[in-house]
Amino acid sequence: HSYLFENYDAENRDTSNYESKNGTLQNILETENVNSHSGYAYFQFNNLKNGEVYHKFDNLIEGRYYRFTSYVKTSTNTQVKMFARSNTSEDYITFSNVNSIINQELIFKATSKTMDIGFKFEENQAKDSYVIFDDYLLEEINREEISSIQTQDIKLFSSKYFLYISSILEIYCSSCFILNFSYSSFALSIACL
Questions:
Q1: Beta strands, E only, the chain
Q2: What is the pLDDT, as a whole number, of residue 184?
Q3: 3-state secondary structure of 153
Q4: pLDDT value of position 192
Q5: How far apart are the first and last CA of the chain?
Q6: Quick check: 148 pLDDT over 70?
Q7: Nearby residues of 31 by Cβ (< 8 Å), 6 or more positions away
Q8: DSSP designation for 36
Q9: How confident is the model at residue 193, as a pLDDT?
Q10: Side-chain-facing half-sphere of 122: CA atoms under 13 Å
């Protein structure tokens, strides 16, 4: 289920329910969807020094998995972390130089009932660099392993490892499946099709 809060979406035209440090958060209205994903409003967070903006959730279930998604855009040469942080841990992904609005997602396991979930600038990012975000969404997901493939199961084909998976499970309408690839090698490149 989704964890919505008042003004999770920029359409309410204010910045309530977000906390920020070392930066300024604005709600901006536009006449065409240039920086917004849906509707015509978006949030823009301007960096002062190591700035961060987040919503504090206090209703998560420790040990459960969650997906944080948002449409984002950054200023040029700007690197931003999308994070989920408790007092004991932090999960994050990093994105940079996003010049048109795209969807980003972070999947994490809750380590506490209370967690800060949002965006922060990497160290040494320029003053007044910015991150734009719209359609901020947190939802609980069910994450269980349905299949595991070991190296010995993968065939060597034309000097490349290849594995074809055909319908390993029943697919249901409006279901979402996540594929995780874990690998280690000194000189391996991996391509997913």
A1: 19-29, 41-57, 65-74, 79-85, 90-96, 102-109, 115-121, 130-141, 155-157, 160-162
A2: 53
A3: helix
A4: 47
A5: 30
A6: no
A7: 40
A8: -
A9: 44
A10: 13
Q: What is the pLDDT of residue 15?
A: 85
- Please state, rounded to an integer, the average pLDDT across all residues of the chain: 82
C-alpha 69/C-alpha 72 separation (Å) is 9
CA 105 to chain centroid: 3
Average pLDDT over residues 59-64: 94
Judge contact between 25 and 14, C-beta under 8 A: no
Nearest to 113 by CA among 141, 88, 135, 133: 88
Instruction: Give the C-alpha separation, 176 to 190, whole Å.
Output: 23
Q: Rounded to whole angstroms, how far apart are CA atoms 53 and 46?
A: 10
State both tokens at 59: 């209703």
Note the pTM of the prediction, 2 decimals: 0.75
For residue 66, give the nearest of 103, 112, 20 by alpha carbon. 112
Residue of higher predicted confidence among 133 and 182? 133
